[in-house]
Structures are given as structure tokens and as C-alpha cells.
Design goal:
Length: 161
């Protein structure tokens, strides 16, 4: 288990801020921030509807940006802060990119309760099944992250996938 630090709150709040920005732009309530040695490498929100790309989840977009900025595909030493537990695709990308840790807010099951078509396979299950070395911390700032889904659900024109 990874030990939570005071800076974790700062970086999760950046992911939350990005998710709110995405909601204002008609996107879904997901944000992600990638940090290495205390420095933000990438911070973005979900862009599925904007890009007409089902793979444009916040974590995937942040990973793509981080790889470009670092000019490498090895994200060892990086921590991904995600407003929601990464789906199997996003967890796999973190694993393949050798991300050191994932810190997330709400669970996949929470997203499903708000109407998202999530595969209910937790990061811990994927970690065990795949023998992944990615450290996972869940439920971090849970209420603040859950509020993103409440804000999103009050929108008149909300899209799910």
C-alpha cells in the first residue's frame, strides 16, 4: 500500500478542477493528473465527446500528453491522480506505461450507478490477475470526487458512454 502525502491532496484537486472544466465543456465528470517527483507533467479531462474517440478517457489523454512531454513511453516514477477508479483500459495503460502508482477518488461501481457503461472490474482485481506492480490507493477525497458526478447529473444535456 502506498502512503498518502499532503501533496496528494493538491494533485487530486487539480484533477477535480480539470474534471469540472470538462463538465462545463459538455464532457463527462472525469479528470486525471500525472505527477513525477512533485512536478505536474500532465493534467486533463475526459475528451470522448469532443474528440469523438471512445478511448479519450482522462487517464489515456493524460498518459498521451505525459509521454509526449517526457519524450518516452516509460512513466516509471509517475503517479496518476484520477477522479474515478481507472477502467480496465486505463489501468492497463498505466501498467504498460510502468506508472508507479494510481490514486483515485470514486470507484468504478460509483460511475456505474450514475449510468456509465463500466466494466465492474476493480483496479485491485486487475492488479492481482495481471500481477501488476502498480500501487493503488482508492477512495481518496471520495466526497469531493463524488460531487463531480452529482454536478454532471444535474446538467440538462448529459452524455454517457
Amino acid at each position: 500500500m502506498r502512503k498518502i502525502k499532503i501533496t496528494d491532496e493538491k494533485f487530486m484537486k487539480l484533477a477535480i478542477k480539470e474534471a469540472k472544466k470538462g463538465i462545463r465543456k459538455g464532457q463527462t465528470p472525469f479528470g486525471a493528473c500525472i505527477v513525477k517527483r512533485g512536478k505536474v507533467i500532465s493534467c486533463t479531462h475526459n475528451r470522448v465527446w469532443k474528440d469523438t474517440d471512445i478511448t479519450a478517457h482522462a487517464e489515456i489523454c493524460a498518459i498521451r500528453d505525459a509521454c509526449r512531454k517526457l519524450n518516452r513511453i516509460d512513466l516509471s516514477g509517475c503517479v496518476v491522480y484520477s477522479t474515478c477508479e481507472p477502467c480496465p483500459m486505463c489501468f492497463s495503460a498505466c501498467h504498460w506505461g510502468r506508472v508507479s502508482a494510481i490514486v483515485y477518488g470514486v470507484r468504478i461501481k460509483d460511475a456505474r450507478r450514475f449510468g456509465f457503461n463500466e466494466l465492474v472490474l476493480s483496479n485491485e482485481e486487475m492488479k492481482q490477475l495481471g500481477r501488476s506492480g502498480v500501487k493503488v490507493v482508492g477512495g481518496f477525497l471520495r466526497e469531493e470526487n463524488l460531487e463531480l458526478f452529482r454536478i454532471w447529473s444535474r446538467r440538462k444535456e448529459k452524455k454517457v458512454y
